[in-house]
């Protein structure tokens, strides 16, 4: 079939930036001229009401000036327009306009003009109804069989049908089981209302049933008031559609007077008035609107069906008769009669294109022009092919859930930290042990590259650091405009933070309405938490760092601290932290070593991190490219484990406090119930010291709550100290082994899997699971052991451990494996080839798969024997002495045991075929002998045969197992 364009008879573009929908188009003799010619009424969501009288244009103008009869700006958005006899004392047609909270009825009158300006039309309000609920749609008709005038029914967004008889309000009813509003239409033949519910089914309610149903003011009242005056509202019949309906239409022409048409998202339905299906057509496109109209053939109905591919299709029942192309996607279509032409298709788009067209037979003569043959530049094509292949590889390699950020952002964020401290300080705590607490100003500048309506800025910082204001609501920004906010950061606790970094998060909506987030980090200076002091000669903990460059004076590295330092040579510096600990930094005069020493292990982390960072910055400015730093001493694991034990003990105490509080709360409630029973008793009885017991229990509960609160505060401090000591251990391990930044990031994520403790999940169990995973995968002794451990890996339930011995052994083993050359990587699991003997190990969940047999049936007994004899052989084979001594130091890690099992199984499976082949005849002879001796001899013979039976029981099982695959194979 050839596709033809719809012939453009008259068109107009309505407004700019306005929106239209299904109910915004209406056709009829709105001014009651009596000529039989229709006018087009269009309302928009912006409140514009327009009336047109289209006619053929003889000039080159797109929209003739005399085609528009009226244009009025109403105060509220127009949801739907309808024509009908809505005034009780008049038989003329009036215009009903539905607003979100108002229903208005207007009369349109025209006055003949005596000059060249033409006729004048006026819009006059007849009456209006203020709606108590937000309206969604409306329908009209002769409700109750009353002829001569029309009534209105408005459907609200919460499922209430409000009925109006001209100027008066009749009643309101709630639809049962309502969730979202659907199409609503009135069927005058059965005096019923049709709607599509959220259950995706067509429901029919008679007007009489609605009138006598239960009166309710709210949906809850409708559900509860069953025993009141009316009846519960139920539909007369229901038809399940299985999809949401776009439109429902009941044609009023005679030869199709018993049909109901429903346009679904993928199907077209035609039902009879009693709910029985007449026909259904499956659509191969996404429809937008439809309109049934009279057919020239009896017993059939024509339909105009528009879809989202700009097509106008004409169907006769289910047969496609014509197809025409439209310049837009219509949301509403009507048929109208105009003076020059009858049966004009009037279509309206969502952005205000109004078109009056008819079916034409002029095809589109557009053809694709021929492309000039040009010689291809093969070098350019090959370069482009390489570039595209590179993009494809990058796209397949990075499997990110979130999309990549665009190069040009809508908003630019820059953070600047002041070079000097605030004067006066903005800190909440004035001093700690006589040391004044300073504060520093941070300025955030934002520049908009597009229009930003609403944005919010959030500041996050590590405890116990705090800021004067952590949230900012920003004003709307235009293109090119900029704004800035300021806040001060300071120390707000009596312990050191684990990190001096902060993060700025800006959330905003793009001009298209997409929510976006920008993040930027900043680093606070070390001088915010410490002051210069005199060096300490004797300390408890010491760390020595080596470099490959000449010794550097510390005064050139820490210039802001050397000014107030007492050491004039520049070989030593002391940092007195505000919470109390002191850290001394010493530089050797002859060698290239630097020592960090303090009485607190975790407090050396900030100085060590700052020293490494400033070394990199200092030598990069000098142009030194081969600068290296290292740590050659033993790892301070024992000092690190002190922080681990302290944190764990506080977690155990928190659990004990929680249990004690639960017990005391149960006792407190039990005493309260006893007292309440005594007080309610009519005959007073002695309290028997229950009041004293209640006061004592209450005091115990309060004391436990205070102790739990104090323990929680100490736990937060201990976790921050644990983070500092863990980061110091990661730094020393990376310096000693020369780890890359990627490997250091993996190690840090393993040892610091949490940013804070929670009652459900703590640091110990999370760190133990992460370390165990590395030991089983990339840090295992061999690829064979790694594959074995991966095969045995199952789900692990994390919980508070009994002690920290297992965790400390795993961390020690992790450091030992890395020191011996272990490679930290996340892609190791995918690169390991699973050995053949490991492929048949137990699958996750403890279920052993049945081995598949390929080839002839002769190999079947040997494979089955291997599979069954695993369990018996593993128990009997002893461990090798060399393996046992090697695994004694690593008894806590289970991958060693998992790695030994395949070796034992391999040895046993090699011996099985010989034993199996030699014992076939013995099994058969033992059976016959057993049956013969059971009848002849007594208990002694049966006992001996019983012993033989026990000794040959495994081989008998092998025979039975061998028969099962053979039977299944046959």
From TrEMBL:
Record domain PTHB1 N-terminal: where: 1-363
Q: Which Pfam families match?
A: PHTB1_N, PTHB1_CtH, PTHB1_GAE, PTHB1_hp, PTHB1_pf
How is this protein annotated for GO cellular component?
BBSome; membrane
Positions with biased composition (Basic residues): 867-879
Keyword annotations for this protein? Answer: Coiled coil
Q: What ranges does the record give for the region Disordered, renumbered to this chain?
A: 866-970
Domain (PTHB1 C-terminal helix bundle): residue spans on this chain: 739-818
Q: Where is the composition biased (Basic and acidic residues)?
A: 880-949, 957-970
- Coiled coil: which residue ranges? 371-398, 698-725
Please report the stretch or stretches of sequence annotated as the PTHB1 hairpin domain: 634-736
Q: Give every PTHB1 GAE domain span.
A: 437-522
- Annotated PTHB1 platform domain ranges read 525-632
* Any Gene Ontology biological process: cilium assembly
Q: What is this protein called?
A: Bardet-Biedl syndrome 9
**Species assigned in the record:** Takifugu rubripes
Q: What is the lineage of its organism?
A: Eukaryota, Metazoa, Chordata, Craniata, Vertebrata
**What is the name of the gene encoding this protein?**
bbs9
């Amino acid at each position: 079939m050839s596709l033809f364009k719809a012939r453009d008879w008259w068109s107009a573009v309505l407004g700019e930036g306005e929106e239209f929908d299904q109910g915004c188009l209406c056709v009829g003799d709105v001014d009651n001229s009596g000529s039989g010619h229709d006018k087009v009424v269009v309302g928009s969501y912006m409140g514009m009401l327009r009336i047109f009288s289209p006619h053929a244009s003889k000039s080159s103008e797109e929209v003739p000036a005399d085609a528009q009869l009226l244009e009025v700006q109403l105060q509220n958005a127009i949801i739907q327009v309808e024509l009908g006899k809505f005034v009780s004392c008049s038989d003329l047609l009036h215009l009903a306009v539905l607003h979100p909270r108002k229903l208005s009825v207007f009369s349109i009158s025209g006055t003949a003009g005596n000059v060249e300006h033409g006729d004048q039309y006026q819009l006059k309000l007849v009456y209006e109804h203020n709606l108590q609920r937000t309206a969604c749609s409306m329908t009209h008709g002769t409700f109750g069989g009353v002829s001569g005038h029309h009534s209105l029914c408005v459907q609200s967004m919460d499922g209430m049908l409000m009925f109006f008889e001209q100027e008066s309000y009749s009643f309101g009813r709630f639809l049962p089981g309502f969730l979202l509003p659907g199409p609503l239409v009135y069927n005058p033949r059965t005096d019923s209302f049709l709607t599509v519910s959220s259950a995706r089914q067509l429901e029919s309610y008679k007007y009489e049933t609605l009138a006598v149903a239960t009166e309710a003011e709210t949906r809850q009242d409708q559900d509860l008031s069953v025993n009141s005056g009316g009846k519960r509202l139920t539909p007369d019949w229901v038809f399940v559609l299985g999809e949401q309906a776009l439109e429902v239409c009941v044609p009023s022409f005679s030869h199709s007077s018993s049909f109901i048409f429903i346009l679904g998202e993928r199907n077209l339905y035609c039902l009879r008035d009693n709910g029985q299906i007449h026909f259904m057509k499956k659509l191969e496109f996404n429809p937008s609107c439809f309109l049934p109209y009279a057919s020239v053939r009896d017993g059939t109905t024509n339909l105009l069906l528009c879809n989202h591919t700009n097509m106008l299709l004409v169907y006769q029942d289910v047969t496609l008769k014509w197809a025409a192309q439209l310049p837009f996607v219509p949301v509403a279509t009507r048929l109208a009669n105009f003076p020059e032409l009858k049966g004009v298709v009037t279509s309206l788009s969502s952005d205000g294109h109004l078109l009056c067209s008819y079916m034409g037979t002029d095809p589109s003569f557009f053809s694709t022009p021929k492309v000039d043959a040009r010689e291809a530049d093969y070098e350019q094509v090959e370069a482009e092919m390489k570039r595209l292949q590179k993009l494809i590889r990058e796209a397949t390699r990075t499997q990110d859930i979130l999309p990549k950020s665009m190069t040009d952002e809508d908003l630019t964020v820059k953070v600047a930290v002041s070079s000097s401290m605030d004067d006066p300080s903005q800190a909440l705590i004035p001093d700690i042990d006589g040391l004044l607490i300073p504060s520093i100003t941070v300025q955030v500048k934002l520049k908009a590259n597009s229009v930003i309506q609403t944005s919010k800025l959030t500041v996050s910082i590590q405890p116990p650091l705090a800021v004067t204001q952590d949230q900012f609501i920003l004003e709307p920004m235009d293109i090119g405009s900029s704004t800035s906010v300021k806040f001060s950061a300071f120390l707000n606790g009596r312990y050191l933070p684990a990190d001096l970094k902060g993060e700025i998060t800006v959330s905003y909506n793009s001009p298209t309405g997409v929510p976006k987030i920008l993040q930027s980090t900043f680093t606070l200076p070390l001088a915010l938490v410490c002051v210069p002091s005199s060096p300490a000669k004797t300390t408890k903990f010491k760390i020595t760092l080596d470099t490959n460059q000449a010794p550097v004076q510390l005064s050139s590295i820490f210039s802001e601290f050397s000014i107030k330092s007492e050491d004039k040579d520049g070989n030593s510096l002391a940092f007195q932290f505000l919470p109390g600990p002191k850290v001394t930094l010493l530089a050797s005069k002859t060698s290239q070593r630097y020592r960090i020493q303090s009485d607190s292990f975790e407090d050396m982390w900030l100085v060590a991190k700052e020293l490494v960072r400033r070394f990199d910055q200092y030598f990069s400015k000098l142009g030194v490219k081969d600068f290296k730093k290292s740590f050659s001493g033993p790892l301070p694991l024992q000092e690190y484990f002190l922080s681990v034990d302290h944190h764990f003990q506080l977690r155990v105490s928190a659990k004990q406090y929680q249990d004690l509080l639960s017990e005391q709360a149960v006792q407190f409630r039990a005493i309260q119930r006893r007292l309440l029973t005594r007080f309610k008793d009519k005959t007073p009885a002695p309290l028997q010291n229950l009041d004293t017991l209640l006061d004592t229990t209450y005091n115990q509960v309060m004391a436990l709550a205070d102790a739990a609160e104090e323990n929680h505060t100490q736990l937060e401090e201990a976790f921050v100290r644990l983070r500092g000591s863990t980061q110091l251990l990661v730094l020393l391990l990376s310096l000693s082994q020369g780890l890359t930044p990627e490997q250091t990031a993996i190690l840090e994520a393993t040892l610091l899997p949490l940013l804070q403790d929670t009652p459900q999940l703590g640091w110990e169990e999370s760190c133990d699971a992460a370390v165990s995973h590395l030991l089983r995968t990339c840090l295992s002794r061999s690829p064979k052991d790694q594959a074995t451990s991966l095969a045995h890996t199952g789900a692990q339930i994390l919980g508070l451990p009994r002690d920290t011995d297992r965790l400390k052994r795993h961390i020690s083993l992790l450091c030992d494996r890395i020191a011996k050359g272990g490679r930290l990587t996340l892609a190791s699991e995918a690169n390991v080839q699973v050995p053949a003997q490991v492929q048949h190990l137990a699958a996750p969940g403890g279920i052993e798969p049945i081995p598949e047999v390929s080839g002839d049936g002769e190999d079947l007994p040997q494979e089955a024997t291997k599979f069954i004899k695993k369990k018996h052989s593993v128990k009997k084979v002893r461990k090798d002495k060399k393996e046992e001594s090697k695994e004694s130091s690593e008894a806590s890690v289970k991958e060693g045991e998992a790695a030994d099992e395949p070796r034992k199984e391999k040895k046993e499976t090699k011996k099985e075929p010989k034993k199996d082949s030699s014992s076939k005849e013995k099994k058969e002879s033992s059976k016959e002998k057993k049956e013969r001796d059971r009848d002849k001899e007594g208990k002694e013979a049966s006992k001996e045969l019983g012993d033989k039976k026990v000794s040959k029981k495994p081989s008998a099982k092998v025979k039975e197992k061998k028969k099962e695959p053979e039977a299944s194979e046959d």
